[in-house]
Sequence to fold (84 residues):
Amino acid sequence: MTSADNIRLVVLTPQKTLFEGLVEKVELPGTKGRFMVLKNHAPLISSLAEGRIAFTSAGVDECVDIRSGFVEIAYNDVIVCVEL
Fold:
């Protein structure tokens, strides 16, 4: 998979950046249920519930447990602001 096949994920807390990089997919705990973001996902803003953000970067599965947050998805950028 080339970088053109990926989306950019940024996971932020009020204190620091937890992750910034290219990923193949990201799964988020939306307040209305879990959902997955792949390349060319429709633009979206959603609140996040307590749960796990799971993503695949360079073939490696990673995750971050959160208490709450928000996500903005637009133009293959996924920006997530969370409370741990």
About this structure: The chain has no helices and nine strands. The radius of gyration is 12 Å. The longest strand covers residues 17-23.
